[in-house]
Amino acid sequence: MFYQLIDTGNSRSFSARHALLESAQTDGDVVIIIGEKVGHALQTLDGSERKTAVLIELGAESLGMHTGESRGAEGSNLLGFSRFRLGTDEPTRLVEVVRQPGSPATALAAAKEIFEGAGLEMAVCGDFDGRIVDRLVRPYYNAALKRLDEGLATADDLDMTLKLGLGYPEGPIALLERTGLEHHYDMTHALFEATGDPAYAPARRARVAKLRAETKA
Amino acid sequence: MTPIKTVGVAGSGTMGAGIAIVAARAGFRTIVYDTREDALARARKQTEGFFAKSVERRKLTVGQVDTILGNMSATTDIGGLKACDIVIEAVFEDLKVKHAVCAALDDVCPPHTLFASNTSTLSITEIAAGSGREDRFVGMHFCLPAQLMKLVEMSPGLRTSESSFDAAWDFCKAMGQVPVRTKDNPGFILNYFLVPFNNDAIRLVEAGVAAPADIDRAIKTALGYPMGPLELLDLVGLDTHLLVAEALYASTHEPRAAVPALVKRMIAAGQLGRKTGQGFYTYGGAAMFGG
Description:
The complex is a heterodimer of chains A (about 220) and B (about 290).
Chain A: E1 3-7, H1 19-22, E2 30-34, H2 38-43, E3 53-57, H3 64-67, E4 78-83, E5 94-98, H4 105-117, E6 121-125, H5 133-149, H6 155-166, H7 172-179, H8 181-195, H9 204-216
Parallel strand pairs in A: 1-2, 2-3, 3-4, 5-6
Antiparallel strand pairs in A: 4-5
Helix pairs in contact in A: 5-8, 8-9
Chain B: E1 6-10, H1 14-25, E2 29-33, H2 37-56, H3 62-70, E3 72-75, E4 86-89, H4 95-108, E5 114-117, H5 124-128, E6 137-142, E7 151-156, H6 162-174, E8 178-181, H7 190-207, H8 212-223, H9 229-236, H10 238-252, H11 261-268
Parallel strand pairs in B: 1-2, 1-4, 2-3, 4-5, 5-6, 7-8
Antiparallel strand pairs in B: 6-7
């Protein structure tokens, strides 16, 4: 499937060379917009309604910010997406594609063909804060940091137990320290603001890391 | 301490059958007890299937499997465990049920027999209090699937003697497992984190955030987990998850430990997971995981 790429700069999903970028054409049935200014690019895009799909990279915002919402029946050929990455880590192969109640199956099928054709894995979710992975793992990471503070076990023992017991490739403490506790703060702070759920309230260690990073800056 | 040669496993469900495989595979004479003949027969069939796969995958020879299976026996008479040097209970996560089993074991087992509990959420000290031998009682929490996973969370109760704990620790290592010492806290380490995480995954399904397959694919791809949370729940069984989560919630009152309503609806509909052929996914068989 031919697709056009509009890069508005500083994409968090595609910050380096990737097959998806290299296979783009000057025109196509699908338009992919990446970078920090997708909203502006979308507003100036002509003929978007005639495309099979328009895929826009999302940050922390809802897809509804770009489409508008009405009575829970919203949905068009415009889908959101984001390649999952943790803090300073490279983007993973996962692309979370955000749909709305009325999103057509043809748009989702086109997104799947393009993303999987570029070697990525696609998971579809509704227009919810944190989408799938952040919504699910951030409370777990918060709990691990809290229990470390409370002396349930050492950081190494916590990590080893979760690795051996569940087959996780990396324990939560090592993972958060490697990818930046301050980034965990940013994500949990945003989710706590959006949801009001105490499970997302940033853990003390993440707050400390954020304040120290700000002090250094 | 009397050397451990004969191992008893009380309960022949998913965990009990897996623990029995671990013990027998390590060369211990292993006796599995259950109140129900059909449960024992199902465990035996799954065990034979597991070892057949081990042969197919060239992890064991036919001769080795014959020896292992020859060392395994089953009984519906709790008195059949009287020759055991250690008995690991893997019955329902219900304190009254565990007390009843342990009290019955205390009547038939000699004084030197160590008791161990595979509880994942209950207090070792509280279970031991109903066992008649609190000083010889140890927490040994195996991970699912026990026949494949090396980790064992080991917890002493408040009255467990160090010599009993050390003997159980050495036995755990002799089975080829990796013991980790944890405090006698609700959920120890694994379930304290896993149960709320799995509940959160169920809540994503409940809220319509994403379909089970999308949630599992996202978690596996993004984080490299070997199984998604909903695949794991189907393997564990939603009835087992309900018991574990309710026990954890009763101990902690943490909101994320509270069982989502969808779990009870699925249980009412007979959608327990792999064992009923339907859970978050649909299955064609009930073969034991791994080999």
